């Protein structure tokens, strides 16, 4: 066999094209696909057998790309981008997303009237079927607001390292996602946890219990940010904040809450950072519970009568 003729006996050639024309394109494709499809080794194992391509005409390129598109071997919109184009697109996408977040006016007001949001589109354990009166806040809206709150915190705590104190258990999902966004925006922080309760069933008892869990030495003379799930009467915080001021002498104490109820009477304690203001309904989901159920959903719902009457012991 002449050294000038390409070897084709050891490699499948489904395109019907002269391999000399599509060899450079395969190198190009491979450079953008770290996990090639199963068909690729038949080409890659023999690429060195082909001599350099004498010319790559636009017609050959078009034929090759058309074949790849029809065979679904590669996502053409990915493989045809240069590194510069990819970087530009990524930056533009990130800039647009951050612009959207900066334009978000917090807190977001959830209206009194029922929003036409489908519970059936949500993911939740099957044992909760029928326990939701309606969907109040979908997970996508929650995610956007949490990111916007994180951006506010980065601006206000720039140059400092606050201690984020998660008020268990309800604030756990909000706390986790807030920390994730702070890390993405390169804001340093420390974490602590404290268990406080003033609820029994669907109403606040007014009897606040601080169960501990907080390392007071860790928060002494520090900027403390209490991370709450919801504020309604503000009873819990009105007891917790004086307790921390007395025991830890922090530089500052602020509150970030995902939700705040709109009530006729003002809350006993207000939060500087609020994600949503909501009507006066008993809500569940995304960490919020009713008798220790419903924390394990991604969305926030208004509980139904069936949910209130449900016997949780049947799940044990």
TrEMBL record:
Keywords: Cytoplasm, Glycosyltransferase, Magnesium, Metal-binding, Nucleotide-binding, Purine salvage, Transferase. It comes from the Eukaryota. One of its GO terms (cellular component) is cytosol. Pathway: Purine metabolism; IMP biosynthesis via salvage pathway; IMP from hypoxanthine: step 1/1. Its cofactor is Mg(2+). One of its GO terms (molecular function) is nucleotide binding. Residues 141-290 form the Phosphoribosyltransferase domain. Its main location: cytoplasm. GO terms for biological process: GMP salvage; guanine salvage; hypoxanthine metabolic process; IMP salvage; purine ribonucleoside salvage. The keyword Transport does not apply. It is found in: Cytoplasm. It is an enzyme of class 2 (transferase). Its EC number is 2.4.2.8. Belongs to the purine/pyrimidine phosphoribosyltransferase family. This is hypoxanthine phosphoribosyltransferase. It comes from Nitzschia inconspicua.
């Amino acid at each position: 066999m002449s050294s000038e003729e390409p070897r084709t006996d050891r490699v499948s050639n489904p395109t019907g094209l002269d391999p000399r024309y599509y060899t450079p394109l395969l190198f190009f494709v491979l450079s953008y696909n770290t996990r090639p499809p199963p068909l690729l080794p038949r080409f890659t194992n023999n690429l060195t057998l082909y001599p350099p391509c004498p010319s790559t005409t636009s017609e050959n390129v078009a034929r090759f790309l058309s074949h790849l598109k029809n065979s679904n071997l590669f996502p053409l919109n990915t493989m045809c981008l240069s590194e510069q184009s990819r970087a530009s697109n990524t930056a533009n996408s990130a800039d647009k997303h951050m612009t959207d977040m900066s334009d978000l006016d917090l807190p977001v007001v959830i209206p009194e009237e029922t929003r036409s949001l489908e519970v059936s589109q949500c993911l939740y354990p099957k044992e909760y079927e029928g326990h939701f009166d309606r969907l109040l806040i979908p997970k996508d809206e929650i995610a956007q607001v949490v990111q916007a709150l994180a951006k506010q915190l980065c601006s206000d705590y720039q140059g400092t390292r606050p201690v984020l104190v998660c008020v268990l258990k309800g604030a756990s999902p909000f706390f986790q996602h807030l920390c994730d966004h702070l890390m993405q925006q390169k804001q340093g922080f420390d974490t602590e946890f404290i268990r406080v309760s003033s609820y029994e069933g669907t109403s606040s008892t007014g009897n606040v219990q601080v169960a501990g869990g907080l390392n007071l030495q860790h928060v002494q003379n520090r900027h403390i940010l209490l991370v709450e799930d919801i504020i309604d009467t503000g009873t819990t915080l009105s007891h917790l904040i004086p307790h921390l001021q007395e025991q830890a002498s922090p530089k500052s104490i602020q509150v970030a809450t995902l939700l705040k109820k709109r009530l006729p009477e003002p809350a006993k304690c207000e939060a500087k950072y609020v994600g949503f203001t909501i009507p006066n309904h008993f809500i569940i989901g995304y960490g919020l519970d009713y008798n220790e159920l419903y924390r394990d959903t991604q969305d926030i719902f208004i509980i139904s009568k069936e949910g209130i009457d449900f016997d949780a012991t049947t799940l044990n």
